[in-house]
Amino acid sequence: MAHRAATGWGRARLALATGAALLFGAATARAETYALVVGINHYPYDVSLDGALQDAEDVGQALRKAGIANVAEFLNEKAVKADIRRAWQEEVERAGAGDTIIFHYAGHGAQMPELVAGDEADGLDEFLQLPGFDRTRAKETQSEIIVDNELNSWFQEAEAKGVHVLFVSDSCFSGGMSRSATGKLRLAAPLKVKLPITTPEAVEGAKLKESNFQLATVLAASLESQPTPEVVIGDKPRGALSWSFARALEGAADRNGDDIITRVELEKYVFAVVKSESEALQVPNFTPQLPRSEDEVVIRLPSRAVTAPGNEPVAIEDGANQTATGQPSAGTTQMPGTGEPPQWHAALSLRVIGQAPALENIVDGDLPYEWDVASGVFRTPNGDVAGEDIGADRVQSVIDKFILLDFLKFLALKNPGDVSLKPFQDIYAAGDRMTFSVPDSGYRNRLVFNLANTGEVQFLDMQVGAAAANPPALEQLEVTEPYGADHLIVISTNEQVKPIGDAIANTSLSPATLLSVLRGQLEGTETAIAIQPLYTRENR
Q1: How many structural domains does the chain have?
Q2: How far apart are the first and last CA of the chain?
Q3: Apex CA 113: angle with CA 285 and CA 117, to 5°?
Q4: Among 123, 160, 239, 295, whose Cα sits 20 to 30 Å from the Cα of 352?
Q5: Cross-strand bridge partners of residue 492
Q6: How far apart (Å, rounded) are the C-alpha atoms in residues 484 and 2?
């Protein structure tokens, strides 16, 4: 894209509603944290998922590494409602006032006709779908869904004891895709049949409104109108919210290192990381829109056992150049302490369709980028068109652009910056105009550039010293050709940025050269990296 200046659970109720956050008050110094983790890939009677099981395992591991020992996990066929309900009741019984229960769910969500007439404005309840539910035998198997009304009752049980609840729902209940992303949606087909009421919680929970809850937090993966697709992170299908939440638990969201994650810290971290890792396919949903105070506590890290990504020495080795049939680079950097696949290495997983010249810095992978030599279409692992008419003369720059982007995403895990486009869309069409906004970060220097879909590095703005508090000179953008995936990058730091900015502005700096410069300049420094994916096309 060329730039030019331009002249469920989302209701008023708490449960599953807006993916909301009603946040914790001050917790006691000795407050305990309990956790219940559910992850389901295998659905015998529905479309199975690819990344929900790994999401749950990742979150469970992050909880334990954070010093939270009371973790009950229910994975795949073990995710039985009666067992989950029993575990919830046991945790509520064990917990005392000021304690916290974290409930993480990764799997399908769906909608159905409301159980209690007049309960929902649109006449639909939302529910979490467990493996034992078969919609062709809905009444016989309805014991294997958890309805939003029931969750209201569960949360009220904790509320009555003064126990805080953090519910993280990596699923969705409605919404359609605008882009061509190929990841599986965590959205099962809506249920048409009206089910009978079989639990008292379904009735009692319908009476509860948002005002009844002061200690519960519900964090959803996306806005009510958005679907939640699985996306490729580290060459694996994952839920962007679960992945980001696990990194937050490891301490990356704890910006001041006090072993407490506040609402402000969690919101800033999760919003930024979900946006970059999902390539702006989804926006997490918090409610209320504003925190009750700047120091509201949402998570306590009782004895964090791992160092936040980027706070430890990081050794990143250059991978040897590879051809299309090469083997993975030996130089990799792994997410500290998680056992996760490498989050950055100096090579790109790429599948080439057709005869191509020898290419550098590419490897084989399970979920690769894809370049069609004949058509010139370059696609991301998520299936999006990243570039059109990418010929042999440009493809190496596009490869190097995405290697550089992965490096910037890795740095952003430590300290994600803030940047936004308004109006927000997951894809923009030719002629669309948008406002580019960068709030004051508190750093002395700021550099803004674009990694274009052609592989070019385009200088946009640089502010040094006191001027860094000013808005970027380029605030208005308009979509023009070429179309594809651009990435607006904002680097905020106290380090020198003028040599880098001057080099980008005055020369045709390649992504590979910029990567080398940034590694030498920014690694190990206190630097915020903001990434705004910007996908464009010619027509709506």
Answers
A1: 3
A2: 15
A3: 100
A4: 239
A5: 446, 528
A6: 10
Asked, for residue 477, whether it belongs to a domain, the answer is yes
Q: What would the two tokens of residue 335 be? A: 């997410």
| Residue 38 forms part of a structural domain | yes
- Partnered with residue 18 across adjacent β-strands are 9
Q: What is the DSSP string of 67-122?
A: T--EEEEEEGGG--HHHHHHHHHHHHHH--TT-EEEEEEES-EEEEE-SSTTSSTT
| CATH number for the domain harbouring residue 437 | 2.60.40
* pTM beyond 0.85: yes
Query: Residues 377, 385: contact at Cβ < 8 Å?
Result: yes
Contact in structure between 280 and 530 (CB atoms under 8 Å)? no
Tokens in use for 405?
């982007």
Last residue of a domain, one of 403, 420, 438: 403
Identity (one letter) of the amino acid at 426? Answer: D
Kindly state whether residue 155 falls inside one of the protein's structural domains.
yes
Q: How many CA atoms lie within 13 A of 186 on its CB side?
A: 36
CA distance 349 to 371: 11
Residue whose C-alpha is closest to residue 309's, from 163, 505, 110, 524: 524
For residue range 311-354, list pLDDT tens digits in order.
333 333 333 333 333 333 334 444 433 444 445 789 999 999 99
Q: Do 168 and 216 touch, CB atoms closer than 8 A?
A: no
Secondary structure class of 399 (helix, strand, coil): helix
| Greatest C-alpha distance within the chain | 70
Q: What is the DSSP string of 244-298?
A: HHHHIIIIIT-TT-SSEEEHHHHHHHHHHHHHHHTTTS---B-SSSS-SSTT-EE
Statement to judge: residues 212 and 173 lie in one domain: yes
Mapping DSSP to helix (H, G, I), strand (E, B) and coil, where does residue 414 land? coil
Per residue in 510-538, pLDDT tens?
A: 999 999 999 999 988 999 999 999 999 99
- Specify whether 107 is located in the same domain as 146: yes
Range of the structural domain that residue 437 is part of: 412-537
Q: Which of 462, 352, 331, 472 is nearest to 407 (CA)?
A: 331
CATH of the domain at 178: 3.40.50.1460
Distance of alpha carbon 453 from alpha carbon 456, whole angstroms:
7
